[in-house]
Write a structure and sequence with these properties.
17% helix, 8-stranded mixed sheet, 21 helices, globular, 27% strand, alpha+beta
């Protein structure tokens, strides 16, 4: 016998059927094959003499064959179970899954059985016992006696197991989710979440699993461009530790693998195209054997003989291709030795002779074997019950005109029945639409959406924004928030930070510090403290209206990538493996580090904590955040050998909880929340090192030393719950919570605790909510300060589940009833902090003179392109000052849409826009209509689409090197708009709600005049574009080329003054009806200019659904009568009629 393989003549069946399974017999010269029709056939010897054949069950393909010493185990896709046959084809036993509801009535069991698909896979026979493992499609693993077919035990599994394999020490399983698990071969269970028992091998299903010695080989499906594809690597693992070893590359795509007997580390890899590679896993770099099978279709199965002398591969035409190491002079049997004789099928027993007479009983005729009760065994109530409704009666008007022709009745369909056939009756549509454009809903608890029953209470479950054809603005956020405290939206990247932002917002000193920072001249383009201040101002002003922290989240992404903290970046792809509890705690440290550095104005830091003498002078050099949450202690280190004591400064801002080890001899009191927090603060630790004094390698003890009076006003705590052992501390015990609303903390001076303790009160906590069905998410539980709490609530605690806000009882906040609620971040406030804090030194007002400053950073600004005039100091706006505003945007991220099989589509994530240009005009006074802000906005992010057709922005307009215009950083423009809002300006514009939403600023409704709402009739359900209104009311064609924000803002301002004059005349309602009437005639689009080519149908921008633009060149208006298509100049008539004769159409408005 040679060491290399060579092809031998293949085995060709008489009736070609694809060979879906193949196996060598270990004791006889037999090759067993399974076909697509569910039959198992034996071929004797390498010449392929056809022998025994028997059906597995059903008419679907055989999925696996295992040949033993005295039996053949096989299962098929249509058999619903697994059976054992003798080598002669006689069935010994058959195992089918019996549902656990066998106590139910027979009819119920039959229906239940039909919904189960039975067996998905089975293993080889366990060497230490007569048992095989069987994977059931109802997520169970059954152990079956291989001799009798009886069930030994059944255990639950977390997913469908596609492959099972007994190794020398354990049971291996491969799942449809790509996991490889190591089971106890006696019990079938795995260690929960243990690294050595579960490993993610492939992103898709496992398609092959083999083991030999201490090696485990797997193949499976990968993912490329959101589509499954065969993983080109054969993964290799060490069975002892499940540590990944160097994989085996196979560029043709491994479809089948099989270990090579007598070579403990070699494996046979085959592709569907017939390429066979034999490689040694212990030396992947060594040259292996390559063979190409002569296949005309594709390979469907693979097997290796017990001695490794033969390799067989079946193809889609039923041909079995064989590679052999034996020579023609000395051919070997398949099993490698002269084993048991080949079994042949015996002759069928003859039918018994029956002599028929009138008295021959019918029971002498044999009946087939049935494994389920017959119809005659059904109970009378079941058999007589109607299972389908009777057919509908033919309407009498059809019967009256019916005619017969060849026993077929036909009749014309009456008019009154047309359009009513083949319709399924449905109930009335519920009024629980989540969109403002839908029907109004009742504000009742019974109208809440029905959620799937899980152990997670509804208030904690994940909420998602749904998108209608009108965009995210149409979503009814008020359905989820009936309070005066605003939530944050989730459709933007890095929105997982919402929970921590809400927690910091309701810590009053941190909020005031962030708000004061935006009043300073911060030069950093990406400043988290500035963005936190802007979000805090927005949440304060919104009073329950939903907000979005888009600028804050964008800054988080920019700074995280700049710091190479890629674990903090949200890429918009949901990954169930992301541990959000750990992610938010990492971000917590990242955020505090930036807040400390960004808020540090050394040596002019405000003193927030009252101090005296030299302590006050030192406080001016400490960052404000450090003054609030910094634990400034001494780290005392003691050498056990020489007793030398060494001290060094230790400043920390976040306390990581450390838990007692399991089995530690601690009392129950040391396992409470107060004791664990105390221990984590003082941090008593033991380590080994070389002592600098005695030069011995000794044991050291270290601890923090800090007096109780020096503890900070706030404690920021990371819960550090990373395993079930730590989580067990937090779970409720006998309905008593682990977490306490108030705790007393003692500092430590020397070796003793400071007797004077300090009381802390829980202010907020961030928790992770985990469910089995969906991705985990974060919520924030916040105690609202007394100064902001409304009297109508029973508890000061509120849950902020992104944009859903609801009042909660304190016992529900403190309770951790299950592992679905995992603590992440806690903030505690020192009870006497109100007496110790002084926030009066923090600036509170934004400098209004920023409106008078030229803030351009463009290096090549064209002065001829400057169209605005800055405000003079005597022109600073006062409360009630009118200003006209319009903004243009560019797209930073395209819309993500999912197209379904039924042709419908669902918006997964809307397009993300960024402010590109903003123009603000004087709204009244002698210089009315003159812009004082016309800034293009610089952004460091990549722009996906300039949306030139709708924004007028072109490539280079936002680049500091090439821009001709006034280019300003986004934060500076935001401060200008913030100053206008704070000074009480009234903004006039068209479609301002979306503009302010994208700018990410909240403007009180009383400071907004939106012409899209002025010229709107609710019953018409159509809002008018700015372009059409400008043509009809102002008789001006705007947006003829590109959008111009100055032109649009002027048109909106003129439309507002036109509205005022029409209202004063009492003719506005009549005019509005005329606009809609004429609008239908012109399809709500202005006609083309004379001599111009007809414009193309305007495309609705996927991102800018704003109504169009406007541009009166002068301020004010006169009124003339004219035809809509050809407006002409004119003025008031003597009667004061501003509409002219009936049917005269629109009127031209100009200000004199």
């Amino acid at each position: 016998m040679s060491n290399t393989y060579h092809p031998v003549p293949p085995i060709t069946p008489n009736f070609p059927q694809p060979s879906t399974a193949i196996a060598f017999d270990p004791v006889s010269d037999i090759l067993w094959t399974g076909s697509t029709l569910g039959n198992v056939t034996a071929y004797y010897g390498s010449r392929g003499m056809r022998g025994v054949s028997f059906p597995v069950g059903g008419a679907l393909p055989v999925n696996r064959i295992f040949a033993g010493d005295s039996q053949v185990l096989a299962s098929g896709h249509g058999s619903g179970g697994i059976g054992s046959w003798s080598k002669g084809g006689m069935n010994k036993w058959y195992f089918r899954y019996v549902p656990r509801n066998h106590h139910l009535p027979f009819m119920t069991r039959v229906v239940s059985n039909r919904t189960q698909s039975g067996v998905s896979s089975f293993s080889n026979v366990y060497h230490a016992g007569h048992s095989i493992a069987v994977s059931l499609l109802n997520l169970e693993l059954a152990f079956v006696n291989s001799m009798t077919g009886t069930t030994v035990r059944q255990v639950q599994t977390s997913s469908i197991l596609t492959h099972l394999q007994f190794s020398h020490s354990s049971l291996l399983s491969g799942s449809a989710e790509g996991y490889i698990r190591v089971h106890d071969p006696r019990t079938g269970v795995t260690k929960n979440d243990a690294a050595e028992s579960v490993i993610k091998a492939h992103s898709g299903a496992v398609t092959g699993l083999q083991s030999t010695g201490n090696y485990v080989f797997t193949i499976g499906m990968g993912e490329r461009q959101s589509r499954p594809y065969p993983d080109p690597l054969v993964k290799v693992y060490d069975l002892r530790t499940m540590r990944a070893l160097p994989p085996i590359p196979f560029s043709s795509g491994p479809a089948f693998i099989h270990v090579l007997p007598k070579r403990t580390s070699s494996i046979v890899v085959a592709s569907m195209q017939g390429l066979v590679n034999i490689v040694d896993a212990s030396d992947p770099a060594a040259a292996g054997e390559f063979h190409q099978l002569d296949v005309t279709t594709y390979v469907t199965s693979l097997a290796v003989s017990p001695t490794g002398a033969y390799i067989a591969a079946g193809d889609a035409e039923g041909v079995v291709h064989i590679l052999s190491q034996s020579t023609d002079e000395s051919p070997l049997p398949f099993n490698g030795f002269d084993g048991q004789p080949i079994p042949w099928v015996g002759p069928a027993e003859p039918l018994p002779e029956i002599e028929w007479t009138p008295s021959t009983p019918l029971n002498s005729i044999g009946m087939p074997y049935y494994d389920s009760p017959l119809f005659s065994a059904w109970s009378p109530p079941v058999s007589s019950a109607p299972y389908f409704p009777p057919p509908a009666r033919i309407p009498p008007q059809v019967s009256a005109s019916m005619k017969m022709n060849d026993n077929i009745a036909y009749a014309p369909l009456p008019k009154e029945l047309r359009g009513r056939r083949n319709l399924v009756p449905v109930g009335p549509k519920k009024d629980t639409a989540r969109f403002r454009s839908g029907k109004p809903r009742k504000e009742d608890e019974s109208d809440r959406p029905t959620l799937e029953p899980t152990e997670v209470p509804p208030v904690y479950r994940r909420v998602e924004i749904e998108y209608s054809k009108f965009g995210v603005e149409d979503f009814d956020f008020g359905f989820y928030n009936q309070t005066q405290y605003s939530g944050l939206e989730t459709h933007i990247l890095n929105s997982y930070t919402n929970s921590l932002v809400q927690s910091l917002h309701y810590i009053h000193p941190i909020r005031q510090l962030a708000k004061s920072h935006i009043t300073t001249n911060c030069l950093s383009e990406h400043c988290l403290l500035c963005e936190l201040g802007f979000v805090s101002r927005m949440l304060e002003d919104a009073k329950g209206t939903n907000c979005q922290a888009s600028n804050f989240c964008r800054t988080v992404g920019v700074l995280a990538q700049a710091s190479n903290a890629i674990e903090l970046v949200d890429y918009g792809r949901e990954n169930p493996d992301v541990n959000y509890a750990q992610k938010i705690q990492i971000f917590h440290r990242f955020l505090l580090d930036h807040l400390i550095s960004e808020g540090n104005a050394y040596p002019r830091n405000p003193i927030l904590v009252k101090r005296r003498g030299r302590e006050a002078q030192l406080a001016a050099s400490i960052s404000p955040i450090t003054q609030l949450i910094g634990v400034d202690a001494k780290n005392v280190i003691v050498c056990h050998h020489c007793k030398a004591v060494r001290e060094k400064d230790n400043l920390t801002h976040v306390i990581d909880l450390t838990y007692p080890r399991k089995g530690a001899p601690d009392s129950a009191s040391s396992k409470g929340f107060t004791a664990i927090l105390q221990q984590s603060l003082l941090r008593n630790m033991t380590h080994k090192a070389t002592c600098q004094k005695c030069k011995h390698f000794s044991t050291f003890t270290s601890r923090r030393s800090i007096a109780s009076k020096d503890l900070p006003p706030f404690l920021a705590v990371n819960a550090s719950v990373y395993n079930d052992e730590n989580m067990d501390f937090w779970l409720d015990t006998r309905n008593k919570p682990f977490l306490r609303p108030k705790v007393q903390i003692h500092g430590q001076m020397g070796d003793e605790l400071d007797p004077a303790g300090v009381w802390y009160e829980l202010k907020s906590l961030v928790v992770k909510i985990s469910t089995k069905e969906r991705q985990s998410h974060l919520v924030s539980l916040v105690k609202i300060p007394d100064a902001e709490l409304d009297d109508g609530y029973d508890s000061p605690w509120f849950i902020f589940n992104d944009f859903m806000v609801q009042n909660m009882a304190e016992q529900d906040v403190l309770s951790f009833p299950g592992k679905w609620k995992v603590p992440s971040i806690l903030y505690l406030e020192r009870i006497d902090s109100k007496d110790r804090l002084d926030l009066s030194s923090l600036p509170s007002e934004l400098d209004p003179f920023i409106l008078c400053q030229d803030t351009s950073i463009s290096q090549n600004r064209d002065h001829d392109a400057i169209r605005h005039e800055l405000l003079h100091k005597d022109e600073l706006p006062n409360p009630g000052t009118l200003v006209a505003i319009d903004a243009e945007f560019v797209s930073m991220q395209q819309e993500e849409t999912e197209f379904r099989s039924d042709g419908t589509k669902k918006v997964i994530r809307p397009a993300r826009l960024s402010l590109a240009r903003v123009s603000v005009l004087r709204g009244d006074g002698p210089r009315q209509g003159v812009p004082f802000i016309d800034d293009h906005i610089h952004t460091s992010e990549t722009i996906v689409d300039y949306l030139t057709e709708f924004s007028g922005i072109k490539f280079g307009d936002l680049d500091p090197v090439h821009s001709r215009y006034t280019l300003t950083p986004l934060k500076v423009v935001y401060k200008k708009l913030r100053a206008l809002v704070d000074r009480g300006c009234i903004f006039v514009g068209h479609g301002l709600s979306k503009d302010f939403r994208i700018i990410n600023i909240f403007v009180p409704p009383e400071q907004v005049i939106d012409t899209v709402d002025l010229y709107f009739v609710k019953s018409r359900q159509r809002r008018l574009s700015l372009r059409f209104l400008s043509w009809f009311i102002l008789h001006q064609h705007i947006q003829t080329d590109n959008h111009d924000s100055i032109e649009d803002a002027r048109s909106a301002l003129s439309l507002y003054y036109a509205y005022q004059d029409l209202e004063s005349e009492g003719m506005f309602d009549q005019k509005l009806d005329e606009i809609y009437k004429e609008g239908r005639q012109y399809n709500f689009k202005p006609p083309p200019l004379p001599g111009a080519s007809p414009p193309l149908a305007p495309m609705q921008s996927p991102v800018l659904a704003l109504a169009a633009a406007f541009n009166p060149q002068t301020s004010g208006y006169n009124i003339t009568d004219s035809k809509p298509a050809t407006p002409s100049a004119g003025g008031y008539n003597s009667s004061g009629n501003i509409f002219g004769s009936p049917g005269s159409g629109a009127s031209s408005w100009r200000r004199s």
